[in-house]
Design brief:
single chain, mainly beta, SH3 type barrels, 7-stranded mixed sheet, 7 strands, 0% helix, 40% strand
């Protein structure tokens, strides 16, 4: 599945797992950058009360499983960029 075919608008609350299956965090909200209609990244909160957030670009998403509400990434957890 290509990154263009992914619909990131309704992924709030999904878990995000890296390429090894380790949990990165939970999707807080989609982030819009290049187009106001389609998001091109996700803001992921890493922990229950954590203030730390990760930026997950759409290009790094391998699959979205709507049944289990898990997003699988192509990269490891250490490669995900963090921001405040």
């Amino acid at each position: 599945m290509s990154a263009l075919a992914l619909d990131l608008r309704h992924t709030t609350g999904y878990l995000v797992a890296d390429a090894r299956g380790r949990i990165v965090g939970r999707v807080e909200c989609p982030m819009y950058g290049s187009s106001p209609e389609m998001p091109d990244a996700l803001s992921v909160r890493s922990g229950f009360l954590a203030r730390r957030r990760c930026l997950v670009p759409a290009e790094t998403i391998e699959q979205i499983d709507g049944g289990s509400r898990v997003i699988g990434l192509r990269i490891d957890r250490e490669s995900v960029r963090t921001f405040l």
